[in-house]
Amino acid sequence: MCGIVGYIGKRHALPIILDGLKRLEYRGYDSSGVAILTDDGLIVRRKKGKIKDLIEVVGHETINGTTGLGHTRWATHGKPSDENAHPHRAGDVVVIHNGIIENYTELRAMLKDRGHHFKSETDTEIIAHLIEDHIKSGEPFEQAVLASVNQLRGSFALGVLYAKNPDKLIAVREASPLVLGFGNSENIFASDMPAILPYTNKMLFMNDGTMAVITAEDVKLFDFTGSPLPVNPKQFDISPAMAEKGGYKHFMQKEIFEQPQAITDTMRDRLLFDKKEIDLKEAGIDGKIMHALKRINFVACGTSYHAGLTGKYIIEEMTGIPVDVDVASEFRYKTPLVGNETLTIAISQSGETADTLAALRLAKKHGSHVLSICNVIDSTIARESDHVLYTHAGPEISVASTKAFTAQLITIYLLAIHIGRGLGRISKQQAAVYIDTLVTIPSLLDTLLKQEDLLVSIAKEYARYSDFLYLGRGISYPVALEGALKLKEISYVHAEGYPAGEIKHGPIALVNKDMPVVFIAVKGKVYEKIKNNMEEVKARDGKIISFTNTGNNEIQNLSDSFFLLPEIDELFTPILSIVPLQLLAYHIAVINGTDVDQPKNLAKSVTVE
Ligand code: AGP
Question: Which residues of 234-268 are buried (b: 16+ CB within 10 A; e: fewer)?
């Protein structure tokens, strides 16, 4: 996820663009850049680091121009660096981009054959060269952009500037957000409203497959065939602060609702739906490594550790390879029984967690092949791994990890199918069934998220309690742990996750009418057993909140409150069952008035021991 801004009008463009980038910094912050059209020509400045580092660079210059583009990056292809930062330039054409171009390698090869030279590792740079190539073939600016976007596959929100057409900017939208702002003798476009609101409330959210040709006085819209479209901006009554969170109250809530998109983006160009196959060459686990594997070992902390615990069930079920899961802070101080027949998988959203990094280094030292699952491109853990599978969840700002967790799970499903197929443990038919299931998940989550009000009412019912027990069996056990972690870390309420079968070995002594017990009771191998546990709790006046996907009433009849999950193969239930638990924790915290996005004593990335 990146932030893009374009301005054309009566004022100096640079300060407006820099202010817009600062307001979009939550969308990505590993590098940034600007392009301003001045009387002396096109000036492009790019800098690795935060916006403040770019401001430091341009602050010492006089860059006067009333047309410009700006970009703050969340790297997907090519590490954060000055040369990979946007805008990207080809002659007099400059481009900024948010999204992923899936066919950029073939386009880059075609352009190289036509004499183009590339300076960056990014997919975006090929767009600038493609447009320049069409212009050199004699096509006018607008037609050159249209012809180019019709050759792209993937997701792209673009801003394009052509120095030889100084009186216009072009914006293009396909599967990445783009908003147009309409001012007086000035117009602005951006990835999101916060960059626009200080200048105008009159906005239009572009649709996929559309191109806007923008001058200081006018905005024209076209579809990708070049046919004109109506331009109907609306007046929005929303403050810049509210807009930064997309209208949500907290980043945590926004990120919970971003999960369908995060999962779609993480599966993109890895799950080949037509062929019913997984393309995971980037994991670096070929048949030779697979057949030599005797064990897989997850090392991680916190929520990422819970992803590893869930991954154990997934990978053992799909591949038959034994899986261990270690808390990284424990692993780093033990004598590790890993070697070249072990695959160590380090899971880390930030890619900077000190304990996980230390565990990874120890595993490597003992000869283990190391793969990491990270959400930050070129982070330390990613760089020190033999291979990395990036989750494309976009920046996760809230301390409580939500969309990164489900993106980690999706990545583990893809990896398990990849290895299972390579070992011949999963037939082509079974892989097709798994892939069909994965593809339904974003829409099932959308359906589930529409029932947020039900979680609000459950939260109102239970926010006053001070102790919770979260219980699950099988693959729902790590979900219970993660649900409990969410509640305790943002609402400061004591919550403990436990394997449901274990309550008779101790925790049931705690159960009484003041102890809400959350059950994840989904259809599957141990459904009858979890029902028995619910009866045991019920018999001791425990308050039961159940999350179930059984349409029958037996679970509901045992519950004081319940939430109905969409039905899905038990192996895939964690991706769904964790989301109402995230929302329950979030709304209890809101009721309790805690600082949801920055809970006390916690940091987003624990880079110290
Ligand atoms: C999760 O909500 C917490 N913020 C925390 O447990 C986190 O998962 C843990 O610190 C690991 O962080 P990482 O994924 O960036 O390595």
Answer: eebeeeeeebbbbeeebbbbbbbbbbbbbbbbbbb
